Amino acid sequence: MEYEPVIGLEVHAQLLTRSKIFCGCSTSFGEEPNTQTCPVCTGQPGSLPVVNRKAVEFAIRLGLATHCRIAPFSLFARKNYFYPDLPKGYQISMYEHPLAENGFIEITVNGIKKRIRIIRIHMEEDAGKLKHGETPEKFPYSYVDFNRTGVPLVEIVSGPDIRSPQEAGEYLRRLRAILQYLEICTGDMEKGTFRCDANVSVRPVGQKEFGTRTELKNMNSFKHVEKALEYEIKRQIELLRSGEEVIQETRLFDANTGMTVSMRGKEEAHDYRYFPDPDLVPLRIDERWIEEIRAGLPELPDQKKERFIQQYQIPEYDAEILTSSKAMAKYFEETVALFPEPKVVSNWMMVELLRELKRDEREIDQCPITPRHLAGMLILIKNGTISGKIAKDVFEEMYRTGEEAEKIVKERGWVQILDRGEIERAIEQVIEAYTKQVDEYRKGKEKIFGFLVGEVMKKTRGKANPQLVNELLKKKLKE
User: Fold this and answer.
1) I need a surface site. Which of 13, 17, 213, 259 has the fewest CB within 10 A?
2) What is the DSSP code string of 393-416?
3) Which residues pair with 93 in a beta bridge?
């Protein structure tokens, strides 16, 4: 029997407000533990929360950008559970009346476009953070830092529309790009500002009913999400094929082993005993405010992609990659402004630049090659100072050192040879050294021409102008 996975994702994104969702404490990351707290966010008796208007605005921005309906009435609720980093013994969230509903995000996987529904977007407060360790005497300890408690979150709940780990990864990348374009979340998974839980089940192909699902946690990169889903899908299928049952539970992903392990039984909504928070008034969103926010939305990834295709005349695939993050799109446009040949810029970014960044696991805004540096190198290629082959060496040096192309070329003597006499002398040496290959070429084996060109380039240490080499070599071989 063939099985298919059914995946739904729950994403928590920290909003980039200066203060917390219900109090005036700072949301700054990395400060000394428990220095950004007050009676409200630590749940002291008698303290009262007041909602942060900017956090609501940011959540509405996301709802509009993902085609959601913004609810005119929404309600904060108490989600009751005990955990050491939850000082009140409950979390302020939303349940029956979320802020936004019924949206979607479009993804493209293997050339196929697909729409993933967004069931709801609701607001809530973040919990604190636990730190576990051991003393030198091997006594275990746990510390709690409440600085993160009360930082505003949006939770984005997808429909069970995802059918592969690859689709899940692409959905998360698109969602993160939207959050970054809106400038309401950094999207940094390692710092926990963008966190994902996955609900996954499997069912026989063609069956409408869902199977028993498990929830996966502890995934702090797109790669980890995809690997966790791959393992869990395989595990569930093996259980069903051996006649066993899948247990509904929460499982953790272990990045070291690539496996998921059982954490606890899966809670249902009734376990949290939701009820409206009596300290907070309902949110009533005025339609005029919604339209004001809509009018102020920036150019979003899909819009920018279409503009790139029209304005820069680049293929859809290039535009898709170059608009995958706001920083990537900015880098491209800044380079094109300095070197107005969009397809050339796109080629170097898509091949050389992204390869280096992927190898070092860097983001584009951490790249040692600036748009000015890349444009400077492309100008050297265009005016004939360096060849395309040398340019690759120059690029690697720029990436390694952060220096400008012109300086690297001068210091290493990589200026392209345009002197016809010098190139002709190299050609004569190659013809004398490879008389057998020259005879074969003259008898009709034209493929040997590429070999001879390569040998001339070696003689000139890659510095000869390739067009001149081709022209002069052909002329010489005809003599």
Assistant:
1) 259
2) HHHHHHHHH---HHHHHHHHT-PP
3) 77
Domain 420-478, what fold? Arc Repressor Mutant, subunit A (1.10.10)
Kindly tell me the sign of the dihedral angle through the C-alpha atoms of 444, 445, 446, 449: negative
Scored b (16 or more CB within 10 A) or e, 444-459 reads eeeebeeebbebbbeb
- C-alpha closest to that of 62 among 176, 138, 144: 176
Structure token pair of residue 362: 């860097």
Q: Where are the chain's structural domains? A: 3-291, 299-412, 420-478
Beta bridge partners of 196: 11, 219
